[in-house]
Amino acid sequence: MPIVTRIYTVEEAAQHNTPDDCWVVVDGKVYDVSSYLDEHPGGDDVLLRATGKDATEEFEDAGHSRSARELMEKFFIGEVYEETSTLIPELTITHKKHEGEDISSKILNLSKQYWVLPVAAVSLSMVVVGYLKLRSSRNS
Predict the structure, then answer these.
(1) How far is CA 70 from the centre of its chain?
(2) pTM, full prediction
(3) Element (H, E) at 6
(4) 4 or 8: which carries more pLDDT confidence?
(5) Closest listed residue to residue 25, CA positions, set 2, 49, 43, 44
(6) What is the mean pLDDT of residues 60-76?
(7) How far apart are CA 77 and CA 24, in angstroms?
(8) CA angle 98, 103, 104 (to 5 degrees)
(9) Which range among 29-38, 64-73, 105-114 shows the weakest confidence by mean pLDDT?
């Protein structure tokens, strides 16, 4: 069964920066550590200073243990969505249908575009017919 993850912006996570409401962002994940402030071995001020920004570097520099990383999962509440300027631009669809254009005008337009092939076929036919007539007149 798929797990639904709540998506937050960095700005939303940054608003939760008090001892009663403290969120921390680490590795693109948002953690509500409000209930853990008193138990944090480094003190609550460490967590409070980590709010309002991506605290991944501070978390990694502190050298947290595997058990600390596992404990963090209990406080996971969502992920961060960071809008960047390298987003794919929105696709615009244009329709080139000409109003009032009927089938005869379409055929006329196609014949104007592809006139070389019919002209070449007729010219080649005339050359072949002329050659055959000339050859048959010499043989008689």
Answers:
(1) 32
(2) 0.56
(3) none
(4) 8
(5) 49
(6) 90
(7) 10
(8) 110
(9) 105-114
In terms of Cα–Cα distance, which of 1, 40, 31, 36 is closest to 13?
31
pLDDT tens-digit readout, 75-109:
999 998 876 544 556 666 666 665 556 777 777 77
Residue 24 near residue 55 (C-beta atoms within 8 A): yes
CA 78 – CA 29 distance, rounded (Å): 6
Reported as half-sphere exposure (CB side, CA atoms, 13 A), residue 107 has a value of: 3
Residues written for the chain: 140
Report yes or no: 23 and 31 within 8 Å, Cβ to Cβ.
Answer: yes
Distance CA 2, CA 53 (A): 29
pLDDT of residue 120: 82
pLDDT value for 99: 55
Q: Hey, is 8 helix, strand or coil?
A: strand
Give the C-alpha separation, 10 to 52, whole Å: 7
Q: How distant is the alpha carbon of residue 112 from its chain centre?
A: 41
Query: Residue 60 is encoded by which pair of tokens?
Result: 């990694």
Residue 72 to residue 55: CA distance in whole angstroms: 13
